[in-house]
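Let's study a protein:

===
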Amino acid sequence: MATQYGTQMGRLRNTAPVDLPMAGDVHGRVRVFNEKVVLASQPTSDIVEVARLPKGARVLYGILDSTVSLGSSTLAIGIAGTTGKYRAAAVFAAVDTPTLFGPAGVVGEPLASEEIVILTIAAAALPASGTLRVMIFYTLD
C-alpha cells in the first residue's frame, strides 16, 4: 500500500529543506465577518451587502441562519458580476438551523483583491420581519 499526500502534507513530508506551506493553508487563524440582516420586505430589485473581505483572504465556509423562513424568495451569495460565487440562488426555508455554504472550487483559495460579498434576492421579496444571519469564515494569515 502506497502513502499518498495532499498538497500541504507533500510540502511538509517530501521536500528537503521543508517547503513550508502558507499560514493560510496550515495553522492559520480563523476570522469571521458576522452580519445581521433585519428582514423588512426587501424587494427583488435590491442587493444586500453582507461582508467585506480583504485581499488574500481564503474563504473557508459560510453559514446562513434565519429566525423565519424566507418563503419563496431565493438568495444567491456572491459578488457583483458573480452573484452565485459562494452560494447559487436557492430558497432558504430552514428556521433557526445554521446551514453551511461554500463551493469546493472557491473555498480555500486566496482572493486576488478585496471583495464586497452581496446577497442577491430573486423570485419574491424577503419576509416583512425577522433576522437573517450571514457569517463568512476565512483565514488571512
Observations:
- The beta strands are 30-38, 47-53, 58-66, 74-79, 82-91, 99-101, 115-122, 131-139.
- The radius of gyration is 18 Å.
